[in-house]
């Protein structure tokens, strides 16, 4: 079974920095496991690793599609599987790095369209349900997955939402279920820190993003159709819509991004703790723990 290292955790805990150090130490290549870093031109709001920051380490699945294109967990899994084989053939260690737990767990455990859940998509679909009503949502399902729609009544909103969630997150109907089981001999390293420390780091990161071009990035995205295209739904982007509509000022936008980012970090941690077997470390408050991480990786690679 091919060996695969994964570095996971909530936003703003130092995953990128650790991945560079580990890649240098163990001759690795990085595969991004982030659902937003695939988009070209969205660098600030996605905290995308810059070329100088990569320090010569090969990075994959970054800047691969335009902002108006859809990208699903099925797309990610297919691309990542191919890359892992290629990286290993070069004698290098593949390292998945990212906070999109749905992507990472689907890759490690085999894509099972009927059992994976994406809380962000589900929340948005439930909001749409309140506005549009069950019949409209069922009709949407019928267009994309008539097989499932024929088996689900209009009144069964829970199953309607579930089927739509699977389609949006994987790009394939729930009626096309695939489960190939555990794929790799994997080691999952998780980074986390004290909640107060984490939330302050998130707030500071958002402030830095606002200073470093997030507003301009959103102006470009808005002109490119931001409110209607897939990339415009991400954190750091969707919060700007009320600003461009003249309903909120930038301070309100800043506060909303911070709040959404903190909530997302909490969901990320819940996902990784419940869905994956993770070895947790705190490099923020205990940077010397990187020695333990390196020892664990060395032992695992034997």
Summary tags:
alpha/beta; Rossmann fold; six-stranded parallel β-sheet; 9% strand; Histone, subunit A; 2 domains; globular; 302 residues
Short description:
The protein is α/β, with parallel strands linked by helices. 51% of the residues lie in helices and 9% in strands.
What does this structure look like?
The protein has 302 residues and is α/β, with parallel strands linked by helices. The protein has 2 domains: 3-111 and 180-300, Rossmann fold, CATH 3.40.50; 119-170, Histone, subunit A (Orthogonal Bundle). It has 13 helices and 6 strands. Strand 2 (28-32), helix 2 and strand 3 (59-60) form a beta-alpha-beta unit. Helix 3 (73-89) packs across helix 4, helix 5 packs across helix 6 and helix 9 crosses helix 12 (250-275). The longest helix has 26 residues, at 250-275. The two termini are 13 Å apart. Belongs to the IPP transferase family. Residues 34-37 are annotated as: Interaction with substrate tRNA. Monomer.
Q: Into how many domains do the coordinates divide?
A: 2
Largest sheet data: 6 strands, parallel
Structural class: alpha/beta
Uncertain stretches: none
Sequence of secondary-structure elements: EHEHEHEHHHHHEHHHHEH
Oligomer: single chain
Please count the beta strands (DSSP E, at least 2 residues each). 6
The CATH superfamily of the largest domain is identified as: P-loop containing nucleotide triphosphate hydrolases
């Amino acid at each position: 079974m091919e060996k695969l290292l994964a570095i996971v955790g909530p936003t703003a805990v130092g995953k990128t920095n650790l991945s560079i150090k580990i890649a240098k130490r163990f001759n690795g290549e990085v595969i991004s496991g982030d659902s937003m870093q695939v988009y070209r031109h969205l660098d600030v709001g996605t905290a995308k690793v810059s070329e100088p920051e990569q320090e010569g380490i090969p990075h994959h699945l970054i800047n691969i599609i335009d902002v108006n294109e859809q990208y699903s967990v099925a797309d990610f899994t297919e691309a990542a599987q191919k890359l892992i084989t290629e990286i290993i053939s070069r004698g290098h260690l593949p390292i998945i790095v990212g906070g999109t737990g749905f992507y990472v767990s689907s890759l490690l455990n085999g894509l099972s369209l009927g059992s994976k859940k994406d809380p962000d998509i589900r929340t948005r679909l439930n909001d749409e349900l309140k506005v549009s009503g069950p019949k409209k949502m069922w009709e949407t399902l019928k267009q994309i997955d008539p097989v499932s729609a024929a088996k689900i009544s209009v009144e069964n909103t829970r199953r309607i939402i579930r089927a739509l969630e699977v389609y949006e997150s994987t790009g394939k109907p729930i009626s096309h279920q695939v489960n190939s089981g555990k794929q790799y001999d994997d080691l999952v390293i998780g980074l986390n820190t004290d909640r107060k420390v984490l939330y302050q780091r998130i707030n500071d990161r958002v402030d830095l993003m606002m200073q470093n071009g997030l507003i301009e990035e959103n102006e470009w995205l808005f002109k490119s159709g931001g409110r209607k295209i897939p990339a415009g739904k991400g954190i750091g982007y969707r919060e700007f819509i009320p600003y461009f509509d003249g309903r909120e000022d930038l301070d309100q936008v800043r506060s909303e991004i911070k709040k959404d980012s903190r909530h997302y970090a909490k969901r990320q941690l819940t996902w990784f703790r419940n869905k994956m077997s993770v070895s947790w470390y705190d490099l923020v408050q205990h940077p010397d723990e990187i020695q333990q991480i390196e020892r664990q990786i060395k032992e695992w690679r034997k």
